[in-house]
Design goal:
Blueprint lengths: L8 H25 L9 H19 L5 H21 L3 H7 L3 E6 L2 E2 L1 H7 L3 H10 L8 E6 L5 E5 L6 H4 L2 E2 L9
Parallel strand pairs: 1-5
Antiparallel strand pairs: 1-2, 1-3, 3-4
Length: about 180
Amino acid sequence: MSEQFHISPETAATVVVAAVGVYVVFVVLVRVLGQRSLATMSSFDFGCVVAIGAVIGRTALLIDPTLLIGVIALTTFFVMQVIVGLLRQVPLVDRLINRPAVVLVADGVVLHDNLRACRIVEDELRQAVRRAGGHGLGDVGWVVLERNGAVSVIDAASPVDPWVLADLTGVPGVAQGR
């Protein structure tokens, strides 16, 4: 039992470096693959997330993990979350880390190029419209793939404040960026 609490400073440093490295690679992959990698998951996606979690955990914990190594790795992941959360308050860093929200439907018109760019198929779009209570594209003013991977549907019957659309990309005539 006591071996669970003994660790050399070199091993502790290795765990921190491994955890930081895995965290950075994870953030880069999510940025490259897009917000869809964090959206509602299918059973296949869930299986992939479990496998990724196993790889991340095993990598961060080294070959022979102990309780103390696990605590160091977990603490490092939480510290990285805090650091990234603080860095995201800087607009340039936030744009590097997160993809912008993307319009998938504007004024009831499906933007097929944006769907392809976000790797979304029309069936997923239809599902989002149904979940929002829409009966057809005529009910939809805007459908947006949000930065967190969720899909938002704004109803066509309500006027939209331009402030709500200010961070969207992919639609001519909409103010871009922050």
